[in-house]
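The records we work with from here on pair a chain with its fold. Taken together, the tokens spell out the fold as the letters spell out the chain. The record below shows the convention in full.
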Amino acid sequence: MSRYRSEQSDGDFLTDVFKIALGVFIGGLLAALAYTKYMAWEVEHSLRQASVEIQKQAERSRIQAEAERRQRDAAASVKASQQRQQAADLEMQASQKLRHEADMRAAWSQIYKPSAACQAEQITLSCANAHAAAHKRFMEIYGEIPPRF
């Protein structure tokens, strides 16, 4: 080393130190730039992944909402169908009841035919007995109380 010092001047030495310091500084700047670019790439990559996840979640939500809408529509359709069926059943029951009442009236009119005297005056003992006998016979045949007129 002593030989090195003897052959070079202090100016050359400072120039070499300056060159080394400048190289270290430029290397640090390049390292900082590379780190910044890497971090920017990481952020961009994370944003892309988050965007994809958000899109997937939105699609799942849309599909789920569509499935729920279909379920509601199906339930409403079933409910409407049940209501129509109940209305038809009620209408059929009412029709059957009217038909049954008409049949019972016809049967009663076949069993009980009041005489001309009873048609004129119903509050006699013989008319009451005839009515009671017809009532008893109707009950034996149909097991129901005859309709009233």
